[in-house]
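Table S2 (text version). Query chain:
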Amino acid sequence: MSADVTVSESAFIEVDRVEKVFDVRRRTGFLKRELRRVRAVDAISFRVARGEMVGYIGPNGAGKSTTIKMLTGILTPSGGRLRVAGIDPSRERTRLAHRIGVVFGQRTTLWWDLPLIDSYRLMHRMYRIPDGRYRENLDRLVELLDLAALLEVPVRQLSLGQRMRGDIAAALLHDPEVLYLDEPTIGLDVVSKARVREFLRELNAERGTTVLLTTHDLQDIEQLCSRVMVIDHGRLVYDGALSGLHEAGESERTLVVDLERELPPIEAGEAARVVRVEGPRQWLAFPASASAAPLVAHIAARYPLLDLSVREPDIEAVIAKMLYAPGSSGEGSPERRAVVPGAGGS
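Corresponding structure-token output:
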């Protein structure tokens, strides 16, 4: 999608050449300061249809959280046009608040010293949720997110995974039409991540809630989103399927194999290559767009296998390889980034 695209009036989230510039002062000497303009978001354009689940990813400092804050009305864009459900977030923040839910993985909207249920009661009043709807939503969220045993526990005593589930419930009590998730599974154990992902899938399927997800965990994207957008240095450089991102970045997953004894490097032909060997443990790299099943079957049939695991590629590595691979126009300088075909950046 081109940056010059005319944003459709039917789109639920509309972002048209939006930018955000911060003025930063830094000390350059005794009693001397220099004013520097930092362009956190640089003329990005995209649209999200009602009911879509979209991954919004990129390296640290790429502009993801700044975009989310503009979409919620916390920050005002320096330029461009932005609408959520037809509303300008920065001009009608209070009106928009009743139609969106937000979860920041490293911050909580819950009251720290109060039992979890008290936070929900306060939100019941703040959002003026009808009593019947509040009870119905609360009962459903408590059941799906397994919160029954936690309602009387002060928030400060909850584990990170418990608090995250509590935050997600709080963001959904008022039936928002769109949910912004900023690192919702950060620091969670495997069981908590699986529970949160399953809940989000059900929410989207049953209620048609639009979800915009920022994360560093590719499994979040793979299990939840059919579409992914990549932002780098404030510019949208990819917008499409996750498989296309892997192909653009030529990314690889890693199969970690534990054998019964130390052996020479595993021979897997063109399917994979051994990148590391330590005693009976070997690491094999294979294309992220390929299934691990044939490779696992090949190894299990020919080698004395004890255990194995698959490690997903790091998002920063995928993006770095995509943008700065030898031969790309982005090589060597962040100011000369390769724009992937189909991207929304300019």
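Notes on Table S2: The first helix runs from residue 64 to 72. The CA atoms of residues 3 and 346 lie 5 Å apart.
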